[in-house]
Specification:
This protein has 620 residues and is α+β, with helices and mostly antiparallel strands. It has 18 helices and 29 strands.
Length: 620
């Protein structure tokens, strides 16, 4: 009966989060089976029973009983580490794996552990899976699980899929890289004719890196890790120590769809929803499903309050516990994500529908204060003058940390670990970033009356006037390039965005860009984005390439159509193909843009979309 009692104890602890007070736990168990009371009394009480007969639970110093798994999980079938081995596609599934139908109980490597801990054999696949989550893991702030721990100081990284490299190919959902094995080893001689993938950034391979914690590896580092099969412990911990941030740029909601008239339609790179915030959960197949409107409003209101860490949501008659710190549900089984309009202080001006964020710091356990407010650190208790928008701009700029001063003490915010630390002091406080809550009626008021020319989201396209034609003809350099149609573009949002950069006395020019999409309305609304320049045109950096010569831009245009924009060029230097931002000058100041020739520039590369105002859609 001792095994039955421990099994009931383990199951109840799994349902209660893994830990519970000793007396409360045993009083509950006595109600399940009154014979348990006699058994426990005969061995000297609950503490004696746990200490003598239980292998998977332990009594803590605070008089609480917790699940304690005395082994670690390994999914490397080729090693002889002696730990508990599961299917290589774990943690997707433990029992009845969709890939190989492997049963951990039948794995020869696990027989010694099943013999040592016979209670494991009484657990079904779901209970076993929940129990194994109590093993040792490396945890990242952004994701619930990074890698499973196979041996001390060794983090395993997914390798190349052997089935993908076979004649039959990989026919099922897979958690290994779909790459040519010879390419990874550097011995593939068929760069173009090889039938297997050499693309490290394919959708499947990118998802694999995301499942492993989303560490931003470049191609060379990724190949090195896969090919050498070395530990990535140093890499992961180094990124945690240096507070490396991982952004998700695939969750922005289109503001123009919210006002009811996105010109890009289905080709819009942003999500089309009917609210400026949205919540989704990931299914077993890896796709994202949306919650219903009621649950979305509940989740949004709860998430905006940093005190609330978990919330219960009903999904298909199942009550799911949503964990905001890890952005997962069902005990880390599935990921969740929040989508929203772009940030208020981001790299594009999005008007009143942009999402505003506030920053908070934790004084004691789950007691949060909003910046700016008093920070007490040791003997210091002065006022902290650090507004939320200053923190937000530093965070969005990609800074690893932000330094600030309180009286005689120096502090810094570590964005990667979301912590606040005093220099030369071990005391750390948590910080968090939360959106400002907006009600549905308030959001609805922002999109009313957009047909009025005075509304911030008013945009229009119209036939060019005689003055517009004269301006465009005066800018054309080619004798054979004659426009047949000119459409004037206007947007209050883009005008406001441009005015935030204008007025600093910097040089401006009219420049041409290849056509983007099919609709001039889309350009009037969204302007030009960093991804709009054709790849073969990007010779002087990765930004938006514009030219003073219309014939040059026409050479890269998909049709005989160009976009003429008013551009703030400012100070510039020569660009390089691998530039991702304008370099710094010898005085430590960043240039405004890059060019092809400093003495006589003809091609300009912009990285700040707010410096570009599309004016005309020109058909040749």
């Amino acid at each position: 009966m001792t095994e039955e009692l421990e099994l009931d104890l383990v199951v109840h602890l799994l349902d209660k989060g893994g830990s519970k007070g000793m007396l409360e736990l045993f009083n509950h168990i006595y109600g399940v089976n009154n014979q348990y009371f006699r058994l426990v009394a005969s061995v000297g009480g609950p503490a004696a029973f746990v200490d003598e007969f239980c292998s998977l639970i332990t009594l803590n110093k605070d008089n609480k009983i917790s699940i304690s798994v005395p082994f670690v999980v390994c999914r490397d079938g080729s090693c002889n580490c002696g730990d508990f081995h599961v299917c290589s596609h774990w943690p997707r599934r433990v029992g009845a794996c969709v890939m190989c139908r492997e049963d951990p109980a039948k794995n020869p490597d696990n027989q010694a552990i099943y013999k040592k801990y016979p209670l494991l054999g009484k657990l079904n696949s779901m209970l076993l899976k929940r129990l194994l989550k109590r093993t040792k893991f490396i945890i990242r702030p952004e994701t619930p699980i990074l890698f499973e721990k196979c041996a001390p100081d060794l983090l395993r990284f997914p390798q190349v899929c052997q089935y993908y490299n076979s004649q039959t190919g990989c026919l099922r959902p897979c958690l290994f890289f779909h790459l040519c094995r010879r390419f990874v080893e550097g011995t593939c001689s068929k760069e173009e004719g090889c039938g297997l993938s050499h693309d490290l950034n394919s959708k499947h391979n990118t998802a694999i890196v995301g499942r492993c914690g989303g560490i931003p590896l470049d191609a060379n580092s990724l190949l090195q890790v896969i090919n050498s099969q070395t530990s990535v412990t140093t890499l992961a911990l180094d990124m945690l120590d240096h507070d490396t941030m991982i952004h998700d740029y695939d969750t922005e909601i289109c503001v123009w769809n919210l006002v009811g008239k996105c010109g890009k339609g289905e080709g819009c790179p942003f999500h089309h929803t009917n609210l400026p915030f949205w919540w989704q959960y990931q299914t077993e197949g890896g796709t994202w499903e949306s919650w219903d409107r009621h649950n979305i409003l509940v989740l949004e209101k709860a998430y905006c309050n940093p005190v609330i860490r978990t919330v219960e949501i009903k999904i298909n008659d199942i009550i799911a516990i949503i964990d905001f710190p890890t952005m997962t549900m069902l005990e880390g089984e599935y990921k969740i994500r929040r989508m929203s309009t772009g940030p208020l202080h981001g790299d594009r001006y999005l008007g009143s529908l942009a999402t505003a964020y506030h920053w908070h710091w934790e004084e004691v356990d789950n007691v949060w204060h909003e910046f700016p407010s008093c920070v007490t650190q040791g003997k210091h208790a002065p006022q902290l003058e650090l507004p939320s928008h200053v923190i937000e701009m530093s965070y969005l700029k990609g800074d690893d940390k932000l330094h600030f001063k309180i009286s005689d003490s120096d502090f810094k915010l570590l964005f990667g670990g979301m912590q606040m630390k005093e220099e030369d002091c071990r005391n750390m406080r948590k910080i968090c970033r939360r959106p400002i809550h907006r009600t549905v009626p308030k959001c609805a008021n922002l999109v009313c009356g957009t047909d009025s020319p005075d509304h911030e989201y008013y945009s229009a396209v119209a036939e060019a006037t005689a003055e517009d034609w004269e301006l465009v003809r005066g800018l054309l350099k080619g004798e054979d390039t004659k426009p047949t149609e000119i459409i004037s573009l206007s947007s209050n949002l883009i005008n406001t965005q441009f005015s935030k950069r204008d007025g600093q006395g910097k040089k401006k020019k009219f420049l041409f860009h290849p056509v983007v999409g099919e609709s001039p309305t889309a350009i009037a609304q969204h302007g030009l984005l960093l991804s709009d320049t054709p790849p073969d045109m990007k010779k002087y950096g990765t930004g938006i390439h514009l030219s003073a010569d219309e014939t040059y831009s026409l050479h890269f245009s998909a049709r005989q159509v160009l976009i003429l924009s008013e551009v703030i060029v400012g100070e510039y230097c020569r660009g390089k193909p691998d530039d991702t931002t304008p370099p710094l000058s010898e005085f430590g100041e960043k240039f405004d843009c890059c060019v092809n020739n400093v003495d006589n520039p003809d091609v300009y590369v912009l990285y700040d979309v707010m410096c570009i105002k599309p004016k005309y859609w020109i058909v040749f």
